[in-house]
Amino acid sequence: MSIEVKDLSFCYNRGTSLEKRALDNVSLSIGKGEFVLIGGEIGSGKSTLVRHFNGILKPQSGSVTVSGMASTDRDVRHKAGLLMQYPQKQLFGRTVFEDVSFGPSNFGIKGDALEQRVADALEQAGLGRDIGSLSPFSLSGGQMRLVALAGVLAMQPEYLILDEPTSGLDPENRSSLLATLKELHLSGISVVVVSHQVCEFLPLADKVILLDNGWVSFNGTPVEYVRSVSSPLPEITLLMKDLIREGFDVRDDILSIDDAFEEIVNALEKRGAGQDE
Ligand SMILES: Nc1ncnc2c1ncn2[C@@H]1O[C@H](COP(=O)(O)OP(=O)(O)OP(=O)(O)O)[C@@H](O)[C@H]1O
Ligand SMILES: [Mg+2]
Question: Which GO terms describe its molecular function (predicted)?
Answer without folding.
Answer: ATP binding; ATP hydrolysis activity; ATPase-coupled transmembrane transporter activity
